[in-house]
Design brief:
The protein is α/β, with parallel strands linked by helices. It is built from 5 helices and 9 strands; from the N terminus they run E-H-E-H-E-E-H-E-H-E-E-E-E-H. The structure holds inosinic acid and magnesium ion. Magnesium ion (MG) binds next to strand 5.
Length: 195
């Protein structure tokens, strides 16, 4: 698995430092009020579980699962696979947590979906941000690190379902996704599913 990594971008130590900083920002914003962290599956599960343990104020945890499809030219369609109950959304202050903000489609669609269902406030926190890839205007309220336009894996981020368990973030060697083994799981990074 490690042989498929071209370069390590963020080590475990750097990740901890980045999360500590964002956890402090989040704590500051929500101090004294109830809120719910909504982890966007599957990619954010590693980040969300580390993040919530560094936030020393009361919070609830919920999950949402969505897949976005789009190749950068066509407006992406968001499919909701799993959504929190009305009780977990209505009138609540929500912090959506995702692994990476790429085109921005997943996050902006999810923010809209939660607002439509009556959330009192919807904010966002992403582990990584690729501003160079944005297809629509969207800025996260909190983010740990900015990355260049390259395909990254590890710390929850996958390629074709794998590499999520790497403890660091690395750039995947282009030959892995350019000549990837054939099969239904193989996706071009540009068309990756939004999980
Ligand atoms: P967006 O809707 O284009 O912002 O897509 C965000 C989703 O695409 C993320 O939640 C990831 O699942 C996936 N994604 C985007 N870039 C990468 C990457 O470099 N590595 C792994 N997954 C990525
Ligand atoms: Mg994701």
């Amino acid at each position: 698995m490690n042989d498929d990594i071209q370069e390590i971008l963020f080590t475990e130590e750097q990740i901890v430092a980045g999360i500590d900083q964002v956890a402090a920002e989040v704590t500051e914003h929500y101090r004294g009020s109830k809120f719910t962290v909504v982890s966007v599956l599957k990619g954010s599960c590693v980040f969300a579980s580390d993040l919530i343990r560094r936030i020393p104020i009361p919070l609830e945890l919920a999950f949402v699962s969505a897949s976005s499809y789009g190749d950068g030219t066509v407006s992406g369609r968001l499919e909701l696979n799993f959504f929190p109950s009305d009780q977990e959304v209505s009138g609540r202050r929500l912090l959506l947590v995702d692994d990476i903000l790429d085109t921005g489609r997943t996050m902006s669609s999810l923010v809209g979906a939660f607002r439509e269902r009556g959330a009192a406030e919807v904010r966002s926190c992403v582990f990584l941000d690729k501003p160079g890839r944005r297809a629509l205007e969207y800025t996260a309220d909190h983010r740990c690190f900015e990355v260049d336009d390259q395909f990254v894996v590890g710390y929850g981020l996958d390629y074709a379902g794998e590499y999520r368990n790497l403890p660091f973030v690395g750039a995947l060697r282009p030959e892995i996704y350019q000549q990837g083994s054939s099969g239904p799981e193989t996706v071009s990074p540009a068309k990756t599913l939004g999980d």
